[in-house]
Amino acid sequence: MPTFDNLELRYTSKMNKPCPQWLRSALRLLFGCLTCFIAVALPFLPSLAGLIGGIALPLTLAYPCFMWIVMKKPGRYSRSWCLNWILGVSGMVLSVLVVTAAIWIIVTKGIGVHFFKP
C-alpha cells in the first residue's frame, strides 16, 4: 500500500538502511490503530464520504483524460481528442453532480456529531 511504502521510504532514506520486519509490523499496527481511533472518535465521517469522494472524483475521471491530451497532443478534433474531451467533461459533470447530491443529503439529513459514540 502506498501509505506503508511511504513510511518505509522515509525510514530508509533517513536511516540509510533497510526497514526491519519488526518495524514494518509495528508501523502497520500503529497505522491500523490510528485509523480505528479516528473512526471511533469521528463517527460523522461516513456522512461526509460522498462529499469527499465527489471532490476527489476528478482526479480519477477527468485528470487522466486532460493530461493525455496535453502530453500526447493528438490532432485537434480527431477521434481520440474528441473522446478524451467527452470523457473528461463527463467526469467533471459527474463530479459536480456527486458534490451537489452530497451537499443536498448533508443539508436534508444533517450530520449527527457524537464524539466517541459510534
Give a short account of the largest sheet: none
Task: Tell me the Rg in angstroms.
Answer: 21 Å
Oligomer kind? single chain
Assign the structural class, choosing from mainly alpha, mainly beta, alpha/beta, alpha+beta, or little secondary structure.
mainly alpha
End-to-end distance, in Å? 27 Å
How many domains comprise the coordinates?
2
The fraction of residues assigned to DSSP E strands is under 5%
Number of helices: 5
Task: Detail the poorly predicted runs.
Answer: none
Order of helices and strands: HHHHH
Query: How would you state the average pLDDT, rounded?
Result: 91
Helix content: over 70%
Would you report the number of β strands?
Answer: 0
Approximate shape: flat
Describe this structure in words.
The protein is mainly α. It folds into two domains: 2-41, no CATH class; 45-109. It is 79% helix and 0% strand. It contains five helices and no strands. α3 packs antiparallel against α5 and α4 (63-72) runs antiparallel to α5. The longest helix has 31 residues, at 79-109. The radius of gyration is 21 Å and the shape is flat. The mean pLDDT is 91.
